[in-house]
Amino acid sequence: MVRSVVASVGIAMSLCCGALAQDTSGLSDAAKSVIGAWELSNADRDRVCRITFQTDAVPGGYRADLDRNCANLFPSTKDVAGWTMDKFGTLRLLDAQGNALLELTEVESGIFDGFQPGEGRYVLQSAAAAPIRSAGDMIGDWAVARGAGKPICRLTLAGIPAAAGTLALNIKPGCDALIARFGPTAWRMERGELVLLSARGQSWRFEENDANTWLRVPQSADPVLLVRQ
């Protein structure tokens, strides 16, 4: 009898929780249109982080996943855990208890705008519609750093063509052993990511953290950054 009751409760909870996580019938078409990856930036777009709006239910709305660097760039996003949209189309970012932390209004298709005292204007736009950096934007001198530490290598992303659709990369003397082992010799832009390549066919991929900083992906506990000089 006890086993039967426990099993019944377990099944009921499973069905209940599954419905809670998957039921999006309450979402309007406007809310459904924001599901996916977006980029949050300041007005000058020199600070950028990614937010992914999910459909898993959380208090007050649905789950939102933010890049780890978001809280450093935009302190007001530190406690964001969810999102919701009201019948007027206002997009709200919520904390874990369902309280609204930020409000954004759609100013044109795929672009939301908001303001936070002390932090200024926010712009939220679909990652698919966000500007993609070209190779020409990246040419110049960069430093490789680990975490928030001092640079461990300096290099130049040149605009000179190299082999197989890549561009030349020049390393300056005195690089850390990590970079020496990797030995990058070329680079290219690929679907918005910066890719460094070695002569042995190895590659390091970086995504934009802000206009002057790119973060190696996948992220690790000891992040590797490219910082424009």
Which labels suit this protein?
229 residues; alpha+beta; Lipocalin; 2 domains; eight-stranded antiparallel β-barrel; 5 helices; disordered N terminus
Poorly predicted residue ranges: 1-22
What percent strand? over 45%
Annotated CATH topology of the largest domain? Lipocalin
Q: How many β strands by DSSP?
A: 16
What would CATH call the class of the largest domain?
Mainly Beta
Structural class: alpha+beta
Termini separation (Å)? Answer: 71 Å
- Compute the average pLDDT: 84
Rg measurement, Å: 22 Å
The neighbouring-strand order within the major sheet is 1-2-3-4-5-6-7-8
Q: What is the domain tally?
A: 2
Q: Which CATH architecture of the largest domain? A: Beta Barrel
> What's the main sheet like?
8 strands, antiparallel, barrel
Question: In words, what does this structure look like?
Answer:
- The chain is of the alpha+beta class.
- It folds into 2 domains: 26-126, Beta Barrel (Lipocalin); 135-228, Lipocalin (Beta Barrel), CATH 2.40.128.
- Helices cover 17% and strands 47% of the residues.
- It has helices spanning 2-22, 29-32, 70-73, 135-138, 177-182; strands spanning 36-42, 48-58, 61-66, 82-85, 91-94, 100-108, 111-116, 120-126, 140-146, 151-161, 167-171, 184-190, 193-198, 203-210, 213-217, 224-228.
- The protein has an 8-stranded antiparallel barrel. It has an 8-stranded antiparallel β-barrel with strand order 9-10-11-12-13-14-15-16.
- A hairpin with a 2-residue loop joins strand 12 and strand 13.
- The longest helix has 21 residues, at 2-22.
